[in-house]
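To the wet lab folks,

You asked to see what we're planning to order before we commit. Fair enough. Below is the target structure as C-alpha cells, and below that is the sequence we designed to fit it. If anything looks off to you, flag it before the synthesis order goes out.
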C-alpha cells in the first residue's frame, strides 16, 4: 500500500506531463485541410472556426442562424481561411444533417476533419419530468445527428485518412434521470 501511495502520484504526474506536452494542432497540420465545424454560428464552435481560419483551413460552417453564419464566414476569411462557406441546417432533422455532408462534398470535395460540436434541442437541467418530447428532441440533436453526420461522412474521411473531433460535456456522460422527490 505504501508503494502504491508513492507510485500513483508519480504516475499521475508523468501522465499529466505527457498529456500537456502532447502535440496539439499546429498551422502545418491544418493549412489547406478541409474542415467542417458544426454549431459554428456562436460559442465554442465559432471560436474553433476562427482557430482553424488563422491556421489556413478550408472551412465549412453550419448551424441554423444564417445571419450569424454569414458574419462568422466573413471573420474567418479576414483571419486567413483558405476558403469559408456555410450551409444552414437544423440538426433536429436528420435529412438536414445528411445535407450538411452532401453540401461539404459539393463545395470542398470531401473532408479532412469533422468537428462535431453543436448542442441544442429541448434540454432541461432540472429533474426529469417524464417529458418524452424533450428526450427525443435532445437525443436527435445531440446524439442521432452526430451519428448521421459521421455515417454520411465516413467514406470521405476514410479516403482522406481524416479525423473526427467530438466536443462533449460532462453532463452528457452521467446525468441521472431522477424522479422529483416529494416535498
Ligand atoms: N459552454 C460550456 O461551458 C461547455 C462546457 C462543456 C462542454 N461544452 C460543449 O461544447 C459544445 C459547444 O457548446 P457551446 O457552449 O459553444 O454552445 P452554444 O454557445 O449554445 O452553441 C451551440 C451551437 O449549436 C448550434 N445549434 C443549436 N441547436 C442546433 C440545431 N438544432 N441544429 C443545428 N445547430 C444547432 C447553435 O447555432 P444555432 O442556434 O444558429 O443553430 C450554436 O452554433 C457542446 O457540445 C457543449 O456540450 C460546452
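Sequence we intend to order:
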Amino acid at each position: 500500500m505504501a508503494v502504491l501511495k508513492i507510485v500513483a502520484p508519480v504516475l499521475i504526474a508523468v501522465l499529466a506531463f505527457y498529456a500537456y506536452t502532447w502535440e496539439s494542432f499546429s498551422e502545418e497540420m491544418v493549412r489547406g485541410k478541409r474542415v467542417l465545424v458544426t454549431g459554428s454560428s456562436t460559442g465554442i464552435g465559432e471560436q474553433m472556426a476562427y482557430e482553424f481560419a488563422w491556421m489556413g483551413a478550408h472551412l465549412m460552417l453550419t448551424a441554423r442562424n444564417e445571419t450569424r453564419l454569414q458574419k462568422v464566414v466573413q471573420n474567418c476569411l479576414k483571419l486567413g481561411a483558405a476558403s469559408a462557406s456555410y450551409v444552414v441546417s437544423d440538426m433536429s432533422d436528420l435529412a438536414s444533417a445528411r445535407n450538411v455532408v452532401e453540401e461539404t462534398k459539393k463545395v470542398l470535395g470531401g473532408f479532412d476533419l469533422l468537428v462535431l460540436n453543436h448542442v441544442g434541442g429541448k434540454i432541461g437541467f432540472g429533474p426529469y419530468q417524464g417529458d418524452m418530447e424533450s428526450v427525443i428532441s435532445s437525443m436527435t440533436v445531440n446524439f442521432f445527428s452526430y451519428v448521421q453526420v459521421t455515417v454520411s461522412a465516413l467514406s470521405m474521411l476514410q479516403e482522406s485518412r481524416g479525423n473526427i473531433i467530438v466536443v462533449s460535456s460532462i453532463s452528457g456522460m452521467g446525468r441521472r434521470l431522477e424522479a422529483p422527490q416529494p416535498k
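Structural context that might help your review: The two ends are 45 Å apart (CA to CA). The chain has one domain: 31-168.

Thanks,
Computational group
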